[in-house]
């Protein structure tokens, strides 16, 4: 299995690795800092170089139990030592959007009693789905924006902790984390990665996040639409 260096440090941008196996257009490495698409967050991009050739990594996916780095040219051979570099601008924006989505979700949970059904984190504009939320008029939008921005302006520290399963479930449940997401974690997962945003929010999440809410800027809520069964999709952007 590929060691996922970004699980412990979201600010790593460069790393050295060895090619463990190759496919037609991808390599599998012994370690990586590239975030594979998953949990609603879009894939990283970047480069891999062996010193003579630098290839673009256009997509990273977990498929058939392995992390595949898709390349824009013929893959390196097995055993090649490579240096990887993440497209930091893209990743950092994902980190800001993703952390902001947690705060938006928590705000809506507290003030509107809605659950998060899913999310799609990508640079430029992200979105999340909430239920039950039949209407979301201009007045509510502005109220949520102001509320979320007030939280962001508290400059809350964002921490990642690893906890054994039982301890994590207790910790999250005591802090009102929505159980639907806990139930989605397979029984085989014995160690949880816990996200703690100051005294405001906790979550079980494998995504990438900033270290302090001051890095996010402010939220600007855009359009929203019903996507069926009482579920409302809310789009948002970030402004500095
Ligand atoms: Zn997250």
Would you kindly provide a written description of the structure presented here, covering whatever features stand out?
There is one protein chain. The protein has 240 residues and is an alpha+beta fold. 23% of the residues lie in helices and 38% in strands. It has 2 domains: 3-86, Elongation Factor Tu (Ef-tu), domain 3 (Beta Barrel); 91-239, Threonyl-tRNA Synthetase, Chain A, domain 2. The chain has helices spanning 88-112, 138-152, 165-174, 179-183; strands spanning 3-4, 14-22, 26-29, 31-32, 46-49, 54-63, 66-71, 81-86, 115-120, 126-131, 158-164, 191-197, 201-204, 218-226, 232-239. The strands form 4 sheets. The protein has a 6-stranded antiparallel barrel. It is globular, with a radius of gyration of 19 Å. The termini are far apart. 36% of the residues are buried. Zinc ion (ZN) is lined by residues 98, 102, 195, 203, 205, 207, 209.
């Amino acid at each position: 299995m590929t060691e996922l260096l970004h699980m412990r440090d979201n600010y790593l941008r460069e790393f050295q690795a060895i090619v463990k196996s190759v496919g037609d257009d991808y390599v599998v490495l012994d370690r990586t800092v590239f975030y594979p698409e998953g949990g609603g967050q879009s894939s990283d991009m970047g480069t891999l170089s062996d010193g003579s050739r630098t290839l673009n990594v256009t997509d990273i996916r977990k498929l058939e139990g392995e992390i595949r780095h898709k390349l824009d040219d013929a893959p390196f051979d097995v055993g090649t030592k490579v240096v990887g570099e993440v497209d930091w601008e893209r990743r950092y924006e994902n980190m800001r959007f993703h952390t902001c989505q947690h705060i938006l979700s928590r705000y809506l949970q507290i003030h509107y009693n809605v659950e998060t059904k899913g999310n799609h984190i990508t640079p430029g504009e992200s979105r999340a789905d909430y239920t039950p939320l039949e209407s979301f008029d201009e007045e509510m939008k502005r109220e949520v924006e102001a509320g979320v921005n007030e939280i962001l302006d508290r400059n809350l520290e964002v921490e990642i902790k690893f906890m054994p399963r039982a301890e994590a479930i207790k910790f999250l449940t005591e802090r009102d984390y929505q159980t639907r997401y806990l139930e989605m974690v397979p029984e085989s997962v014995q160690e949880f990665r816990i996200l703690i945003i100051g005294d405001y929010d906790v979550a079980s999440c494998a995504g990438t996040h900033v270290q302090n809410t001051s890095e996010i800027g402010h939220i600007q809520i855009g359009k929203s639409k019903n996507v069926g069964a009482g579920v409302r999709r809310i789009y948002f952007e970030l402004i500095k």
